[in-house]
Amino acid sequence: MDVEIGISAPPSAVWNVLAHPTRWPPWTASMTSVEPLGQPELGPGARVRIRQPRLPALEWQVIAWQPGSSFTWAAKSGGVTTVATHTVLPAGADRSRLVLGVSQHGLLAPLVRAATGRLTRRYLEMEAAGHKAAAEAGPIA
């Protein structure tokens, strides 16, 4: 499942928002907290614990990292691996496209998708809108 959104900011500004997940909760109600586990900065192998309304807290680990353009992290719970992708694409002068994706894998994945699919899509849409607002607002410290 993917959600795309156009953003009136250059890819570098979008990446600056995207690459700092501990700052996400204030502008997306889909996340209660993002806590680093180990290294404070996001990068290859970094781990975070994310708490979201109506979902169990999960530990996510970065499994792919392309600085300035994308990262992927994965979480395992109850026999299901959830993979989330975050990609910034250039879309013209000072414009970008953000693509957020989530997929589940494993024996129980079809049940998890059936139970949480609508909520997952809503959360992706909230996160995309929050990233857009934050990137368009200007640099973050």
Assigned CATH superfamily: START domain
Q: What is the CATH topology descriptor? A: Alpha-D-Glucose-1,6-Bisphosphate, Chain A, domain 4
What general outline do the C-alpha atoms trace?
Answer: globular
Strands, count:
7
Nearest-angstrom radius of gyration? 14 Å
Mean pLDDT: 95
What is the count of structural domains? 1
Pfam families: Polyketide_cyc2 (PF10604)
Protein name: Polyketide cyclase
InterPro entries: Polyketide_cyclase/dehydratase, START-like_dom_sf
Overview of this structure, please?
It contains two helices and seven strands, in the order βαββββββα. The termini are far apart. The chain is 26% helix and 38% strand. α1 crosses α2. It is of the alpha+beta class.
Concise structural overview:
InterPro entries: Polyketide_cyclase/dehydratase, START-like_dom_sf. 26% of the residues lie in helices and 38% in strands.
What's the structural blueprint in terms of helices and strands?
Layout: E1 2-7, H1 11-18, E2 33-37, E3 47-51, E4 58-66, E5 70-77, E6 80-90, E7 96-105, H2 109-137
Antiparallel strand pairs: 1-7, 2-3, 3-4, 4-5, 5-6, 6-7
Helix pairs in contact: 1-2
List keywords for this structure.
single chain, 141 residues, alpha+beta, Alpha-D-Glucose-1,6-Bisphosphate, Chain A, domain 4, 7-stranded antiparallel β-sheet, 2 helices, 7 strands, 26% helix, 38% strand, globular, Polyketide_cyclase/dehydratase
